Amino acid sequence: MITISLCLIVKNEENSLGRCLGSVHDLVDEIVIVDTGSTDRTKEIAASFNARLFDFEWIHNFAAARNYAFDQATMEYIFWLDADDVLEEKDRVLLRELKATPDFDYDSVTMHYHLSFDASGKVTSSLRRNRLVKRSCGFRWHGIVHEYLAVGGRIMDSAIAVTHRKDVPHTSRNLDIYRNQQKAGVPFSPRDQYYFANELRDHGHYAEAAGMYERFLSGKQGWVEDNINGCYKLADCYAHLEEKEKQLASLLRALTYDKPRAELCCKLGDWFQQAGNWEVAIHWYQTATMLKLPENSWGAIDHAAWTWLPHLQLCVCYDRLGKRDKAYLHHELCKMHVPDHPSVKFNEAYFQKLGYPHQGGA
């Protein structure tokens, strides 16, 4: 059985830390908490779980804080979380099984990261992260913001998921760090260009964000998943700026990096739908329904695009063309995935008024 150090960096996490540690404390062999300046009950809560507590002066560098936490670990493997992450029961079972695996000798274990959910609790957005790493490999964190753990060697893609339960509003902290770096004239890596653009976009600075995305993509140095998402987000900026042709060009630019994905197909479908070009919109939405979600994808996944969303929009498009039998068919397919979605309930009432279901109606 392997031994595990759980490492977290925290600051003023009294509302979430207990929930996080409560979901995992009995699965690890030590808990390392690095505090960067808490003024609430964070340290008290950490101590109640027998955590080893360390103070680290905040220097506006997340990688530095995480590396310091890793340096304090003493067990064979290091498992890292944020204070607003939890392990659900099914994932606790999987981690317990993994820990007991005989002759376990991987250098890193990736896990799903469930980021958002619909009203029924279904995952709507997820990606993968390296979560459990062999301490002797000496893997290090990089990046002042949106840091990443550089790993290599034998990697296992597990079925375990870490669930993100963010319960505090976003702040301008990350944007401020990038602004200060920009003001100081510190060069931005391609990855920092991408994440700086994300922060600008998230704070509504669409024109400035578009410029940074363009700079990032033109440099041709980014990770392919960042490139693809950069195209999507650049298109979103142009949509807010009401530059429709640039929005479409940005979406089509994603095709230079990979074959069409359901997310892109739905975005293209939406563009043509908004333009009233129902036939072309239908083409892209239908394409989305025929694609298979790649296994162990590292990119961000919009699960709606791979399941119910294209059917919902095909229902709308076919209805606009007066092809109500086809519209009803896609309504039924959408309903199989999200029967309680407000749009599905609205469409259900709409079709009932039209006399559906009826013979030949589907």
Automatic annotation (TrEMBL):
Q: Does the keyword DNA-binding apply?
A: no
- Presence of the UniProt keyword Lyase in the record: no
Q: Which Gene3D superfamilies match?
A: Spore Coat Polysaccharide Biosynthesis Protein SpsA, Chain A, Tetratricopeptide repeat domain
Return one GO MF term: transferase activity
Query: Which UniProt keywords are listed?
Result: Transferase
Which SUPFAM superfamilies does the entry mention?
Nucleotide-diphospho-sugar transferases, TPR-like
**Glycosyltransferase 2-like domain span:** 5-103
Domain of life, per UniProt, equals Bacteria
**PANTHER family in UniProt:** GLYCOSYLTRANSFERASE, POLY-BETA-1,6-N-ACETYL-D-GLUCOSAMINE SYNTHASE
Q: What is this protein called?
A: Glycosyltransferase
